Amino acid sequence: MTDDVDTQVSDRLVGRVLDGRYRVGARVAKGGMATVYKALDMRLDRVVALKVMHDGLGDDAQFARRFVAEARAAARLSHPNVVAVFDQGDDDGTLFLAMEYVPGRTLRDVIREQAPLSPARALDLLAPILSALSAAHDAGIVHRDIKPENVLISDNGAVKVADFGLARAVSATGNTATQGLLMGTVSYLAPELVTDGSADARSDVYSSGIVLYEMLTGNKPHSGDTPIQVAYAHVHADVPPPSSEQPGIPPYVDALVQRATARDRDLRPADARVLSRQVRRVRSALEEGLPDDPELTGDLTIPIQQIRQDSGYDDGYTRGAPDDDSHVLRHDTIVVPVEKGRPTGAPRVQVPPRRRGRGLLALILILAAAIGVGTAAWYYGIHRYTETPSLVKLDPAVATAKAGEHGLRTSLANQDFSEDVPKGQVMATDPAAGERIRKNGEISLTVSKGPERYRVPQLAGLEFDEAKRALAPIKLITGQVNEQYSETVSSGRVIAISPKFDTVVKPGTAVNFAVSKGRMPIAVPDTTGKSYRDAGKELRKLGLVVGRTDQYDEKVAEGKVISQTPNSGTLFAKDKVQLVVSKGPPLVEIPNVKGKRLADAQRILTGAGFTVKTEKAPYGLGLNIVAAQNPGARKKVKPGSQVVITVL
């Protein structure tokens, strides 16, 4: 306990918040390329499992790109037996996946504590694994790293497969992470992954067969001192029958394991769905308590000739028409050469002459054998089987009742979305309608969840990258992105989306984004010399705020802009531009000409720059003396103003 606490305390990630969202908690597990932590998604207030790639992987640009692509592909998988991927991110070079948190243990723990498992228990654990792989293979996704460590078993017994696409992301790089992956999973690698690195659905089938072998026996089929030796064994040695380690395992279980782990992938089931059907047939035979089922074993067994032909094996036996020196005795698919009436290498014996009685006896034996073979074929091939009824678009209870009328049972295998079948009705069966099924067999029902629909989340105001990541878990895609200026939304954040928030849409719907480029810059025009009215109108139209101060100016006409601050560059809406507006030339003081003679008054006023208007007093005496002036003496007026003088 003390060591564990010390480890948690010394772990630099514990307590850290990644991507501003995930608070890292206790370490759950550590592998060759990643460490898993329990974490809190602070935005959605839920517990998640955070798989953090080891230091150095984030520095590889190729890996980072493949990691993001594979994580997005895995996030599109929606299946009850698949560990859901919620998010992926890069926090300053720290790559991580946010996944569904599954409290419980791994299949490795079960094998370590309970193996060897009974065939029935092993197949019951394998069935949900194959169900998850079937969904992945249908979506074109190959897991590439099926092993007990990647199979989680929750506290309530649910089986879930993790790490879809991660092996593909790692194998794209040339760094030591790839070597670590090979070291950790070599016991489950399909031969083709060892020889040429190629993988398809049949590679997952092979790994699943190895996992089944290990559950049945408690051991891996191939061992060696080094990973290379184990890899070599996958390529050059067949997986032995599990009954070689655990006697009592039925032959059809042996055949199932060996078919799934055929070294030639063309001889394996085409994908997990095909293997899943074979597993159900074997499970049904186990339920019947059959120690052997020749037909089922024969269906699953790889023909010996096929193995020899596909592997280029040449046993030197004669397979064509016999010549003069030899002829061939055939038994089933095994060809035995015979030379001059005896098998090659056998001791010579005296062949007694043929007798008619013996010929008759041989004929009787052949007829009896034919009848026995025919009876067995009828029983194993026809009598025990019936035809699967059509149960699609029925309520599960009604489907169960209808299956019961045919002596068959049903089980709810899965739920899935359907555009055609209403919610709660059967959308598919395995076996399908019309296919052969053992009497008293079980039909797996897939029930419709109705059309797959999602509500568009609230994305306005989020960073654009964060908004795009929010689309992946609900299977929506990024549509058109229109960048535009915004006075209220900061640069890089979402202004608006279409379809709008809370709209119900189909998977694959494109969400269009309006993304802010920040506030729109405004080029400031220079309005110096323009009238204040025109200058103010021009600036306000651009969204700027106009300030004004007035001052006298001998050179700039009244009402015109003397100066502007700023008068160039760029501003943003509601920024202020200050204008200085001319009041015209400075005011001048009117001299006092009252009491002066008319000629002197006119001379003084015109000399000061004023214009003079003379008026006679109504009671004029003809003295030509200034009795009054308007404006009065020492008043300040504009240069050139008119002064009216009244003379007596």
From TrEMBL:
One Gene Ontology biological process: negative regulation of fatty acid biosynthetic process
CDD domains for this protein: PASTA_pknB, STKc_PknB_like
Keywords: ATP-binding, Kinase, Membrane, Nucleotide-binding, Serine/threonine-protein kinase, Transferase, Transmembrane, Transmembrane helix
Catalysed reaction, written as an equation: L-seryl-[protein] + ATP = O-phospho-L-seryl-[protein] + ADP + H(+); L-threonyl-[protein] + ATP = O-phospho-L-threonyl-[protein] + ADP + H(+)
E.C. no: 2.7.11.1
Alphabetized Gene3D superfamilies for the sequence: 3.30.10.20, Phosphorylase Kinase, domain 1, Transferase(Phosphotransferase) domain 1
Domain Protein kinase, residue spans: 22-286
Domain PASTA: 382-449, 450-517, 518-583, 584-648
Superkingdom per UniProt: Bacteria
Entry annotated with the keyword Signal: no
Protein name as annotated: non-specific serine/threonine protein kinase
Taxonomic source organism: Kribbella turkmenica
Top-level taxonomy: Bacteria, Bacillati, Actinomycetota, Actinomycetes, Propionibacteriales
Gene: pknB
